[in-house]
Amino acid sequence: MNHMDLENQILAWLESHPKRNRRMEDIIEGLGIDDLMVRQVLDQMEQNYEVFRSETGQYQSRKMAGIVEGRISINRAGLGFIDREDAESIRIRDNAQKTALDGDTVLVQCQPWQVYGTVIAVLKRARTHVIGTFEDSGRGLHLVLDDEKLQEKIKRVRYDDDFTPISGMKVVCDIESYGIPMILHVRQVIGYKDDPGVDITSILLDHDIEGEFPDEVMEQVHSISQTVKEKELEGRVNLCDEITVTIDGDDSKDFDDAVSVSRNENGWLLKVSIADVSHYVTEGSPLDQEALKRGCSTYVTDRVVPMLPHELSNGICSLNPHVIRLTLTCQMQVKEDGSISDYRIYPSCIRSTERMTYNNVNRILDGDRKLIAEYEHLGCLFTDLADCADAIRRHRTSKGAIAFNSSESEIRCDKNGHPYYVGPRHSGHAEEMIEDCMIAANVCVANFMKWQEIPSIYRIHDEPSSKRLNDFVRTSELLGHKLILPKNSIRPTVIQNYLESVQDSDEYPVLSTLLLRCMQRAKYDNRCIGHFGLGEEEYLHFTSPIRRYPDLIVHRMLRKYSFEGCMDETQRAMDEQMTAEAAEQSSIRERLSADAEFACADMKKAEYMEDHIGMIAEGIITGVQSYGMYVQLPSTVEGLVRISAMGDDYFVYDQARMQLVANGSRKKYRVGMKVVVMCIGADKKQGNVDFALVGKNGRVYGINRASQYGKRRESTHRKKSERKGYGRKQNRRKNRSA
Predict the structure, then answer these.
(1) How far is it, in rounded angstroms, from Cα 251 to Cα 314?
(2) 678 within 8 A of 694, measured Cβ to Cβ
């Protein structure tokens, strides 16, 4: 018997003896297994926190001991929380957190009847370094950490003999000890806090996102030819003479997908050709290891931190116009009703006919005569593509794909990185067309990988938790809209039908946002368990191998097991393990990348509003709490209206109805209402914006005191609300591409 089997037997035995003796002698006798082996396995399980032993020698499993594993969130007041899907969050006081920091994966002991728990162990550290700035307090230089929640920590800063700290210098410090004091060692100088771009660089480095590539990676890149050799075309379907285009944003420089389409008697023959990055990024090479480490490209307001060096992402791997490129093609026969009756996946080569932009394609579809004449040589490509993609979308919608209302932000900065425009990012028909084609290809490849039993990384999305949905049902009813949930498992069509029923209401943007917060977060897994939001039983990412590592793995596995026909079962087992590990790493890196993107956006929005103090605008209430309410402007900027900036009345928080009620006038403020506000404060460093209500007579409430009153205390409440799902950040983290 191996140790894993014995561990499972021990756990099962413990669970079946909840009220009887569970000492080591009892376990040995109950299992009837060799004394020494049981003792060794029990010792190992105790070290791994799989079992726990009381002072009297009684063993318990995690469940019996009230042990919960989770990610701890610590607000600015020092109170920790462990979120649970279908139960109240566990609270952990600062003196019960051991050395845990915000974001760490921990074991917490908390019995079902208890509210507060105690950290038993830190399993995984969320951060190994911190960012800080040397500042002169008048009594010498000291390091102020960017993370406000760590600023009160007792710390000791070490640095090498050849390093001289200077006031205003921003640095990266490795955490050498998490105890008291926290010991930090200066590893890298970022620059000076007011230098252009240092603010963004600091956020990226804080999320472990490095701009520079290691020397060994660049050596491999420089050995790769920037032109396709004749020999490399062998065994590929030649699509170079077909009309094929890339369609991307105006500023895009890396083109990893191209499309071609033609009408036939059965509907449309659609070909989605994707850059064959796996041909250049070979398994286990320095390039491959660095790509796995990064996981994905990160897009922030003034730059892109690519997963692959620009020589690849913008060069030989990019489907640039008029040059031959190596690709993998998913060829689909799309029927008139948008369903796919047949598909093929094969290695290919293309020569992109034109590099098109969303803007120009939208203008062509809108009838721009000048552009139609300029691209006359492409024939009816765009109208055929629009008809084909629209049919695909209709079919996907009929199966239950959910379309949430989302407001992505567009932030434009000048050459010094200062924002001069913030507004919603608008998508047109062209953007939808490409999205539809890419999703169709992803579904086909996922279906192929699953039924061919090829090791792969899938994109999975679980159904929402019943607790979150039930909370939303109550909120929806308070806003006058009824959502009836089925008794059993919920289907995407239920969500879809509900959103369609409220689409024309004033509350639709808020209801869509609140419902989006109920959804689980999509992630990567080597198991194919479906995608709830898209209503698909099989789904993965195949179409962006330049910027996502899972897509690269899918390409590599297709080549190995489909195109080359690998039959080695040992290799298959190794690849199953590899895909599981790569999926977990990719999910972690995706979250870090998204967090960095949102942190940069928050910072730049706050910096933008620093130039617009005193601006008055109408916004919509997106969240209500006991300390105030959140209001979002049409520009997508969201800020907090504190109680002190709502009027002279005394306000009572009605939690049951999620509204603030003025005690005297009985005026009510609830989610979905439109209000007029003035920007009275903004903090670029913390990424926060403060608003004050503007009355009908033009009076601005609390303008003299709201921007200072209780700022630190209420920012603590703000963080707590965001953790519970009422704030802006949690929603936007879910609002990612499928």
Answers:
(1) 12
(2) yes
The pLDDT of residue 342: 96
> Residue type for 332, please?
M
CA atoms of 191 and 196, how far apart (whole Å): 10
Nearest partner of 247 among 141, 331, 323, 354, judged by Cα: 354
Residues 134, 140: Cα–Cα separation, whole Å: 10
- What residue type is 84 in one-letter code? R
CA 331 to chain centre: 30
What six digits make up the tokens of 679?
């920007």
For strand 616-625 and strand 674-683, is the pairing parallel, antiparallel, or unpaired?
antiparallel
Query: Which residue blocks in 182-316 are alpha helix, DSSP H?
Result: 198-206, 215-222, 286-294, 310
Where do the H-state alpha helices sit in 185-312? 198-206, 215-222, 286-294, 310
Q: Give Cβ neighbours of residue 284 (< 8 Å, ≥ 6 apart).
A: none
**The two three-digit tokens of residue 650, written as one number:** 């005394």
Query: Residues with Cβ < 8 Å from 139, sequence gap 6 or more?
Result: none
Query: Contacts for 573-579 with beta carbons within 8 Å, 24 or more apart?
Result: 575/455, 576/455, 576/526, 578/455, 579/455, 579/456, 579/457, 579/526, 579/553
Q: According to DSSP H, which parts of 181-280 are helical?
A: 198-206, 215-222
∠ CA 3-9-13, rounded to 5°? 145
Which has the closest alpha carbon to 408: 605, 643, 130?
605
Q: Which amino acid, residue 471?
A: D
CB-based contacts of 225, cutoff 8 Å, min separation 6: 316
In order of 364, 603, 658, the CA distances from 419 in angstroms are: 31, 10, 35
pLDDT of residue 440: 97
Q: Kind and range of the H or E element at 681?
A: strand 674-683
Instruction: Point out the residues of the chain with pLDDT beneath 70.
Output: 1, 86, 406, 703-738
